[in-house]
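User: My collaborator and I are trying to settle a disagreement about how two of our proteins should look. Neither of us wants to argue from intuition anymore, so we agreed to look at predicted structures for both before our next call. Could you fold the first one, then the second, and keep them clearly separated?

Assistant: That sounds like a sensible way to settle it. I'll keep them separate. The first protein:
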Amino acid sequence: MSAATLRIGTRASQLALWQAEHVRALLRAQAGAPAIELVHIRTQGDEQREVPLWQVGGRAFFTREIDAALLAGTVDVAVHSLKDLPTQLEPGIALAATLARADPRDALLSPDGATLAQLPRGARIGTSSLRRRAFLARARPDAQLLDLRGNVPTRLERLLAGHYHAIVLAAAGLERLGLTAKISEHLAPERFPPAVSQGIIGVCTRRDDTEVLKWLAPLDDAGSRLAASAERALLKRIEGGCQVPLGALATVDHGRVHLEASVCALDGARCLTARGTSDTTVTAAQALGERVAEELLAQGAAALIAAERSALAVEAP
């Protein structure tokens, strides 16, 4: 911390700022909380807005620069959409808090409120995600799947300008920006499994910064921690990222962690699914993620992912 001020590093997009302000409000609600300053940091993902994410080399498009500032000591806290955070954290960084999860589902938006099934044949659907492309291709093989980058308001503008019949965004982001009325349909996780950790805000700090860790510990949500532990262990074992058509969702119910995950070919022709349950400890949830990953790999997930990477010339992790 700089003197008595805690500095939060964040991207400057409308959604990222909402998330950082939310973390600031939670911290301020604690007795004796320090002064809190937001520090805007531009990332590689912000610089390359017109390039499809799967064409951008490397990892951590939206987090690397913020984590570098954290390690350099220019900020004390990093606030991320947890789905953007690599499963292998930079040495010296700790995932100190996983906030209560918002709606993890994907949402379809269309100008006239049409659902996915109601869109015309050959409909133009915008998304920046290979995962969404794959599951959309499986559900609507007739659709034209087009790239869509930019922040949420920009994507909505392009939809309303007629570039697309529909677009797909994370329901959580729309909820946080007060845009749920724009949603035409929530896509069922059984057919459209979300990105790993979608809907969870992750808060990081330096692993040895005991003062900041003390303030962040009360923000950690037990259910989100279990879900994120299972999903991120799965992703790490599969060696996936935003360049892989993998979706997963863990839930906690009746004293058990339930995890279901799918890997889908980009043309939607082949889809592999595995599921399992575990006890409600972080260690057990991580082991669950690894078991489900092993089942997917046994079904041929590695070969499917390798084939998709080869076809797209995507860099392996």
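The second protein, kept apart from the first:
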Amino acid sequence: MSVAGGLPRAVDRAVVHRCEALQIFAKNASQWRGREIPREEVREFRAKIAAAGIAPVVSHAGYLINLATSLPALRRLSLDAMGDELDRAEALGLMGVVLHPGCYTTGNEAEGLGFVADGLVELLRARRRGRTMILLEHTAGQGTALGATFEQLASIIARMDGHRRVGVCLDTCHLIASGYDVCSPEGYASTFTRFDRLVGFDRLKAFHLNDSKRPLGSRVDRHEHIGQGCLGLEPFRRIVNDPRFRDLPMMLETPKEEGRSPAKVELDRFDEKNLETLRRLIDPAGGPGKAGGASR
């Protein structure tokens, strides 16, 4: 949900949409530095989250951060920015920060994975008393982006000696784009069997539920409304009714309605439609996952 007008307004927007889980940007996603959050705003945000009973809440790290790079200046900027994201999330009481692992700018995949792991260990070592997790987001695999295979995610976690504060966020659009067939029953089963074997369900902390404008293996990250893209409805039906995922937050990053005032707290027709589509897929006898707020 948008934080236009201040962080507490994102909670108001989540309440309007009857969300149970929420994702926000804790600062501008396209800038290295963010404004300082006043203490009063932090207190109001935390109080509104508690009053609404929304849990968990996560933030999404800025898009400029690239911990896989070997370029010293970019790496320093990325480490500082990710450290700031963790500090903001800690102050706000968030469960985690969702992070794209990054792209290797020179060298190779193995070196890039090592840079990501080393950077995250450095950041967490400097924040030993923190609780906020780092949630590595599985990516679509465009260009030299890392994190598009379960093997790469497992490698980062292993290089971090299985640090207790690193988890994974799976994005349905990214899964199909990177070549994981979650559309067919057989593909769905094999995808999550493979994930459990390589990464482990104990590391899975969140889902991004997005349909995809591009087909299986396209390696292009283009989100579409639920049921209107290359996934269709059945993969979402399986996920929201899968007992393995019953207690996980499931957050939308589907397209927003255009032409509305970003500062107002009002119903977004597209968000409402996508959330209702998912809610209708839930089998009341099976127990739902949690469908939450959109961040894009």
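Some points you might bring to the call about the second protein. The chain has a mean pLDDT of 95. Residues 252 and 294 are 4 Å apart (CA to CA).
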